[in-house]
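Section 4.2 – Deliverable D4.2 (structural model, holo form)

The reporting period included a commitment to supply a predicted holo structure for the target in complex with zinc ion. Inputs used:
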Amino acid sequence: MSRPPIPKDLERKVLLESGHRCAIPTCKQTPVVICHIEPWAKVKVHQFENLIALCPTCHSRFDNTKAIDKKSMKAYKAGLKPQEVNESAQKTFKEIGPLAYGGSVIQIGGIGSRIVTKTAWSLDEHGYFNANDCVFTSFNGPGDFMHVCCADGYQIVACKSETDCYIEKLSDTNYGVGILDQLKNSVTIRCERIEH
Ligand SMILES: [Zn+2]
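Output (structure tokens):
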């Protein structure tokens, strides 16, 4: 598998997290390159949790000389605070980039609120995919629309909320979920692998 470029939005999120500087707090140098903590050759996916911005010196001390080990790098990553970029623009799955997992269930919302938490995970596969990248929401009340994309090879087959909703296919991997009444708690969306 050849290595695709890191999607722009993901790159921005990684850069924002360390203030566009080297993520090692005592370094903070520029310029930076985005590095995989677990090597690309092993994970074959660009995932926010595994990406960190490093200056060339820290990158080399991590990648080449191993002066900074993986545990330390994970600790530096854990100490960073992701910054959210609010974008209402719809994106297709292809624009978001190749994620490793197909979605099975997406659940949005929290007690007493329209959107408190947003998590997406896969029941049938082997891990999470990023709900912040895959689900776009703008709930204000009845009739609102939520955009959901699922991984290539998957389709949304059902969705459910406390107050009812419907699914509209917008493209092969992009769906809209219409909320018929004010979203009170959560929406559960089920994706299944498309059978050929
Ligand atoms: Zn550095």
